[in-house]
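Model it.
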Amino acid sequence: MSNAAAHRSRISDTPSIPAILTGILGFLTLAVLIIDFWPYLANGNISQTLFSPDATDFDQILFHFSTLPRLAMAFLCGAGLALAGAAIQTVLRNPLASPTTLGVGAGVEFALTLFVLLAPASLAMFQEAFALAGGLIALAAVYLIAANRGNATLWLILAGMIVNLLLQSGSQIILLFNEQYLQSIFMWGAGDLAQNGWDDTQFVWPRVLIGMVAILALSRPLDLLALGDDTAGSLGAKVTVLRLLILGLAVFITASVISAAGMIGFVGLAIPAALRIAGLSRSRDLMICSVFTGGFALVVIDFLVRQFNQFGGDPLPTGAATALFGAPFIIFMLRKARIMPGNQNDDQHSDQQIVSKTALSIALAVSLVIGVLFSLFISLDGNGFVVLGWQDSSLDILIGRSERTFAAMICGAALAVSGTLIQRVGRNPLASPEITGVSSATALAMILALAVFGFGQRAELMVIGAVGGIASLLVLLALCRKFTHAPHYMLLNGLAMTAILGAMVRIVLTRSGTQTSMLMSWLAGTTYFTNMDEVMIVAAVTGVLLVVAIALRRPLELASLGTNQSISLGLGISGFQFAMMLLAAILAASATLLVGPLSFVGLMAPHLARVAGYRLAGGHLLGAVLIGVNVMMVAEWLARNMIYPAQLPTGLIAALIGTGYFLILAVRKR
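Modeled.
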């Protein structure tokens, strides 16, 4: 036998890594089944419990109508989401694509929330179609935003983040006005596999089976699409039709699963990505293996969640727990995969001066002065505009409006500076403070302190929140040390950390009882709880750090040129990037402490300033501050007045303004 033949023989005799992974999870699933079935196996009544439980035996009833369907749902949901993720990753040739990261899950969740709360009972038959439309529209929006950058990995994920934030903001607005449904819808949205019968199982299994068979039948075209559009087209494949068909099937499976069990993230991302890293490349093998590995994995995770729920308190949602397992895997994958930041030339399309920079600066400054006066003295009362008169009672009203208006403006300035620093050193115009995870960590620390440990003083919460934000930043920097803190790795690791922290926030919220409504309002970004002392402290921090950033405008210019150019010009780029990220994190944490986690201002203000012609670092910082302050001032007034006497969180209005801006940009570039 030749050496080559002997080598091939040894390989064929050695179990593959994907088979080992699936086998281990299958063995663990078997162990779960034995543990669940054992009491009935030992008593010899397993057959009766499975098929015709004794109506007088509570344990048999509970097992037949709760535990068994829960096991079935866990496998079906895991299998379906893993298959959908494998199909999406193959079609888009993107290892970080999934129903969660591309906004499909958020689209389905938003559509279902809207339908459940607003649609009349007579339209119940259209609920599934509504959910499917929500997922498809969300995916189309992500695809539209990223298409101008060739759907590069980083751009696709960032576009997914924008759409996710928009839809989550919309869901929060709806929930805040329907508090009677808040707890139940929030539990469902967090991914709850608890069952009270077989209805959900009977709903999900035929849909997952149909989607599975259809996608497996398209495994050969999937192999062609994995070669790239040009190659697939030259081999006779109808690329656009196939892509839309397969993505439609993936969204159909995802919508079916979320309709029954809520948002269960990361299974659709982590499972197919792990199998691909382990060596599976053929689409058919990847799809089949994803089905079993995803199903087994969710059964095991759900079993652990059930054990945790036995300790008492409100039940832990399985969907939130999957993020705790899946997001660390993304961090692991980023350490193994080589993710490129994309072609920087693509970003230059946004550097178009649409108006005179001087004229815009004057207009922004004038609008700021007029806007402050308008915000303080003009309001709506349901019948029209009302001017605040000079009466004794007017002083208290004026103080309250001043606190809220200035709090919003200071947060706009802090996030604008933070976003400008991140975008310049990251050389990515779609980067924002939120994706460093600092805002989420600050929010989580404050929620834990309030809801779990009982801290109630604002000063205590601010200190604890600051510690959480800084700790998150240190973890992020440690994770990216291997890559010398390369900006695109910091952004992607920040996204993963944000997902972990977001899952933890959801878990805490589900167990915070009557405080859930208040905490959700703060998470949406509200100025309602601020006072002037806190505003002045954050204003001082923002002012000092803005002066520091402007003083460092020359190295900031060099950092914008890229790593090689910066080093050749004598800048220690790694240390400088570290310092700028630290500065950005402190600013983001300060804004979060004052108003709550906001994100789109830090994304939109620097981007709009670049488009307006503020290209040099100093002007870019000041232009972004002017824009950020104006946007937050307008958002705060709208939040306070647009649906008087009710009020909306300022952060939600800012998110809607920011998302609309980026969607308009995407459409215009087409």
